Amino acid sequence: MANVKLAVVYYSSTGTNYQLAQWAEEQGKEAGAEVKLVRIPELAPMEAIEQNPQWKEHYLATKDSVPEATINDLDWADAVIFSIPTRFGNVPGQVKQFMDQAGGLWFQGKLVNKVVSAMTSAQNVHGGQESTLLNFYTTMFHWGAIIAAPGYTDDAVFATGGNPYGTSVSVDGEGNMKEDVEAGVRHQVNRTVDVAKRFIN
Ligand SMILES: Cc1cc2nc3c(=O)[nH]c(=O)nc-3n(C[C@H](O)[C@H](O)[C@H](O)COP(=O)(O)O)c2cc1C
């Protein structure tokens, strides 16, 4: 039986989604997948990044150490876990720009049956976690992807706040996560890999 190829594709300004993505990478390996962790490229100018010390610190810490995502990663993967922060209830521009590069793959039907699942964060508990995931998943419907949302398939989902669309977390002003969502991330990854196995063999 071939191993599931899992891409963990994230964007993060201040580190939250990087942490979620790192847990996902670790769990993907644990679940027996071949895993790539890749970072959606930053598009903001340095003047903007420098306005926020946490953003600057995180940008400098990851810009050379985490490989940049390309659409080849989407082509390569059987399954993709995305982790993206909310921007006014929607996906960050950096993420939209990345996804919009996938038109060629989409046109060739290469995104059909990708098993996908997404995670998010916001500053407020009701700050747009659910709408961000739903807005993001619209693109997945157009791909013909299989969305392996967590639903309420494990107690870990309740512990994260019960978002059935994907693990979500709120962060305080210092960038600390307010809920303990690690188990929820791990469950979401296990479920995504498990669903993907049914499509590749
Ligand atoms: C332009 C912008 C818009 C944002 N909009 C919201 C929002 O509507 N609601 C909210 O709770 N947080 C909002 N946030 C906070 C981010 O979602 C939060 O900083 C992010 O989830 C942290 O993830 P990261 O550390 O991976 O960057 C916004 C942040 C920015 C920069």
From TrEMBL:
* Keyword set includes Metal-binding: no
What is this enzyme's EC? 1.6.5.2
The UniProt entry's sequence similarity note says: Belongs to the WrbA family.
What protein is this chain from? NAD(P)H:quinone oxidoreductase
List cellular component terms (GO).
Answer: membrane
Q: Where is the Flavodoxin-like domain?
A: 6-193
User: Which keywords label this protein?
Assistant: Oxidoreductase
Could you say which enzyme class this protein belongs to? oxidoreductase
Q: Which InterPro entries match?
A: Flavodoxin/NO_synth, Flavoprotein-like_sf, Flavoprotein_WrbA-like, FMN_Rdtase-like_dom
Q: Which GO terms describe its molecular function?
A: FMN binding; NAD(P)H dehydrogenase (quinone) activity
Q: Which domain of life is it from?
A: Bacteria
